[in-house]
Design goal:
The complex is a heterodimer of chains A (370) and B (353).
Chain A: E1 20-35, E2 41-57, E3 61-65, H1 72-79, E4 87-92, E5 95-96, H2 102-109, E6 112-115, H3 129-139, H4 148-158, H5 175-187, E7 193-197, H6 205-222, E8 225-229, H7 233-239, E9 242-247, E10 250-256, H8 257-262, H9 267-275, E11 291-292, H10 318-322, E12 328-329, E13 338-339, E14 356-357, H11 360-369
Parallel strand pairs in A: 3-8, 3-9, 6-7, 7-8, 11-14
Antiparallel strand pairs in A: 1-2, 1-4, 4-5, 9-10, 10-13, 12-13
Helix pairs in contact in A: 3-4, 3-5, 4-5, 5-6
Chain B: E1 18-31, E2 34-47, E3 51-55, H1 62-69, E4 78-86, E5 89-90, H2 96-102, E6 107-110, H3 114-117, H4 124-136, H5 140-153, H6 159-162, H7 172-184, E7 190-194, H8 202-219, E8 222-227, H9 230-236, E9 239-244, E10 247-253, H10 254-259, H11 264-271, H12 310-313, H13 317-320, E11 330-331, H14 337-352
Parallel strand pairs in B: 3-8, 3-9, 6-7, 7-8
Antiparallel strand pairs in B: 1-2, 1-4, 4-5, 9-10, 10-11
Helix pairs in contact in B: 4-5, 4-7, 5-7, 7-8, 11-14
Classes of the chains: A alpha/beta (370), B alpha/beta (353).
């Protein structure tokens, strides 16, 4: 088992033709809300994830982006089966695991691992680093060649930590180093899929790059598929070959990296991309478009009818309120690029003639300034 | 009150007199493990109506500096040396009573996490109105009207109704707007924003940044904008100060620092950031190692253990001698000016895509 560590898997680049490792169809998770007195009844549901279709190929890295509260973390937790889906189907390596029991899941669990956002709360402060990394192996009864301790030292070295630090406690490490421990723990079972939930957003800028490079090395050298959940679009672009954009529990646009970043069609993707502040190095750099959405994501307890983005969309018409747009390939897009919108945008990210400002306070201030 | 209406004659055109000037500021905390030199010889100026950006990693002393300006450090554990002059008034030696008069009135602060900065026990409206009542002696009714006006200004819908809400009824972006309303209610001359958008989504961040910029134009306040995101800084600030290990390592206008950075640490920051237009095939170039401990800062240049250019300086100048930050545009580095510009253009710029 342990020699798998340095074996680069022979999978070539993913062209959409790669074998599917994980596929998700119509995945739904509603968290019930109880209320009433004296008998508590279900009075509603938080529709955290509502009909998500997604697939991850073998060795492929898929990014999942969206604002907070859009259900991206819940999707990650459903895929690792930390949560039981309300409806829909999760297929992992040809096996339906959407409602599998604990016992049925046991062999699958070791192949799907997770890296958490906060390296401070995801490591047990009372265990040494060695214990933290070896416990997944002990739980699964794996005894690698040369013993568990040797394997732990190998893993520590792989993630760029000193193997001598085997007996140290998490508080002796900095944030970036702790995240490396989390990565080592996820790798200890030779997983085929890692769900990384905002793995770098709690780290400093200079450290972020270190961890992103480590994850990229792991992904390329060991052929591990990644579901990379993040809100930083620049980092996702750097890390993922494919990308899905979520809004309020639904996937609104999915496609290859270049297709999404260079030719986004959904207004929400446009707005997200235009909101990223970027350092401009040259005067010649053309201004990117500027779209300012108003307000926040609506409540997932009572999501808007029809298209969920219509309450913040500048293109919304009557049709958007009545019919929900399907996630389909729009004319002019490549085969893998699907968009759920009735009135898609022109496929360009260059500056438009006029900024779109939907924020009432900004609109008022700008009017005063004129 | 006199502070409420700014005297018109004061904003003399082209008068570059600094509104806030910090000279050789040193802040030390004594802890069980020893003395932490959180800020070590920092000097900067902020002009009226301008925005100074301060960037740096966590632990570089950017927040401590600004808490010290407001006098919010714990006087029992912290020792402050140096000079902080705000509009001709010395703040380091000011009494607590004098500071109280300034806070929320002449100087206001926006904190990073609006949920912990607002009290869950009082309504949002009351918290916004309180500094106004305290500093202007306005009645409750007047303060309420003013608070509603401010809520409206920062774009909170139905401000009169929202006045009665508690912070938990607001979303993250709205809470930050409420914080901005609170800090601007007395027309402060200086606004300190400590990572005001770090906890927010990109779309909301863009709203808040635009709002701050437009409100600054309207009120003419000076802003100190602290962040670790160079992208945000490039949109917000006029001048930029890069901090590392309690010291300023580079200073200049935003254009100068971001387009022709001179300090290896600034190079590192720029090349470790992925960019939307960058080349995805190229690996990011992180800064090796970790930020230094402030208990035992490295000798000489604090950045030398992580710097890739120490060999170019020659000898052990980097580990032995502390480089000084020149006044005005410049960087605290032993490399000479020619080296700085050639290294940046030949080695760093190609990586930035």
């Amino acid at each position: 088992m342990s020699d798998k560590l340095t074996l680069p898997k022979p999978q070539g680049p993913v062209d959409g033709a790669a074998e599917t490792l994980l596929s998700v169809e119509g995945l739904t998770k509603h968290f019930p809300i109880y209320g009433g007195f004296p008998i508590k009844r279900k009075v509603g549901a938080v529709q955290a994830v509502d009909g998500v279709d997604l697939s991850v190929g073998v060795g492929e890295s898929v990014g999942l982006v969206g604002e907070s509260g859009c259900g991206k973390s819940t999707t990650g937790r459903l895929i690792t089966r930390l949560l039981e889906p309300t409806a829909g189907k999760i297929t992992y390596a040809g096996q339906d695991i959407s409602h599998a029991s604990r016992r049925q899941l046991a062999p699958v669990r070791s192949e799907i691992q997770m890296i958490f956002q906060d390296p401070y709360s995801s490591l047990n402060p009372r265990q040494t680093v060695g214990t933290i990394i070896k416990s997944p192996m002990e739980v699964n009864g794996i005894n690698p060649k040369g013993g568990i301790e040797k394997r732990v030292r190998e893993l520590l070295e792989l993630v760029g930590l000193n193997p001598e630090h085997y007996n140290r406690f998490p508080h002796e490490f900095s944030g970036g180093q702790r995240q490396r421990i989390g990565v080592a723990r996820a790798l200890s079972l030779n997983p085929k899929l890692i769900v990384a939930d905002e793995p770098v957003s709690a780290l400093d800028v200079s450290i972020q790059a270190q961890v992103v490079n480590l994850l990229q090395k792991v992904q390329e050298e060991m052929g591990i598929a990644f579901l990379f959940i993040a809100h930083d679009l620049a980092i996702v672009r750097h890390f993922s070959q494919r990308l899905a954009v979520m809004y309020l529990g639904k996937v609104v646009e999915v496609g290859d990296r270049d297709s999404i970043y260079n030719r986004p069609r959904h207004p929400y993707t446009h707005a997200l991309l235009s909101a990223v502040p970027e350092v401009t190095l040259d005067d010649e750099t053309e201004d990117r478009e500027r779209i300012r959405l108003s307000g926040d994501v609506p409540s997932p307890i009572h999501p808007p009818s029809g298209c969920r983005f219509r309450t913040r969309c500048w293109k919304a018409q009557d049709k958007c309120a009545t019919t929900e747009p399907p996630l389909v390939q729009i004319s002019g897009n490549s085969a893998n690029h699907l968009t759920a919108c009735h009135f898609p945008e022109d496929p360009t990210t260059e500056a438009r003639a006029e900024d779109i400002v939907l924020d009432p306070a900004l609109a008022a201030l700008e009017k005063e300034g004129e | 009150m006199t502070t409420l209406t700014k005297t018109e004659g004061e904003k003399a055109p082209g008068g570059p007199e600094a509104f806030l000037s910090v000279r050789d500021l040193r802040v030390r905390f004594s802890t069980e493990d020893g003395i932490v030199k959180a800020v070590d010889g920092l000097s900067f100026d902020v002009e009226r109506g301008k925005t100074l950006g301060i960037v740096g990693e966590s632990g570089s002393g950017k927040s401590v500096t600004n808490l010290t300006v407001l006098g919010l450090h714990n006087p029992k554990t912290a020792t402050v040396e140096g000079e902080i002059v705000l509009d001709g008034k010395e703040l380091v030696t000011a009494t607590e009573k004098e500071m109280e008069k300034l806070r929320g009135n002449k100087v206001a602060m926006i904190f990073q996490d609006p949920l912990t900065a607002l009290s869950p026990y009082y309504t949002v409206g009351r918290q916004i109105a309180e500094p106004f009542m305290k500093h202007t002696g306005a009645s409750k009714k007047e303060a309420k009207l003013r608070a509603i006006e401010m809520l409206d200004k920062v774009g909170i819908p139905q401000p009169a109704m929202r006045f009665e809400d508690y912070p938990h009824q607001f979303s993250g972006g709205m809470r930050q707007r409420a914080m901005i309303a609170m800090s601007l209610i007395c027309n402060p001359d200086l606004l300190i924003a400590d990572e005001p958008t770090t906890a927010l989504d990109v779309t909301v961040q863009a709203q808040i940044l635009d709002l701050l910029k437009d409100l600054q134009q309207e009120f003419g306040s000076a802003i100190i904008f602290i962040t670790h995101d160079l992208g945000v800084i490039s949109k917000m600030a006029d001048d930029l100060l890069v901090m590392y290990s309690g010291r300023a390592v580079e200073r200049g206008s935003v254009r100068e620092v971001l387009r022709a950075p001179q300090h290896p640490y600034t190079w590192g920051l720029l090349s470790s950031m992925p960019r939307l237009g960058g080349d995805t095939a190229q690996a990011l170039t992180p800064i090796p190692g970790t930020p230094p401990s402030l208990l035992n800062p490295p000798s000489g240049c604090p950045f030398h253990p992580r710097c890739g250019f120490t060999a170019e300086v020659g000898g052990n100048r980097c580990s032995g001698e502390r480089p000084e930050l020149p006044a005005g545009r410049g960087a605290a580095c032993h490399l000479d000016d020619e080296q700085k510009s050639t290294f940046f253009i030949e080695q760093i710029k190609p990586r930035l895509g």
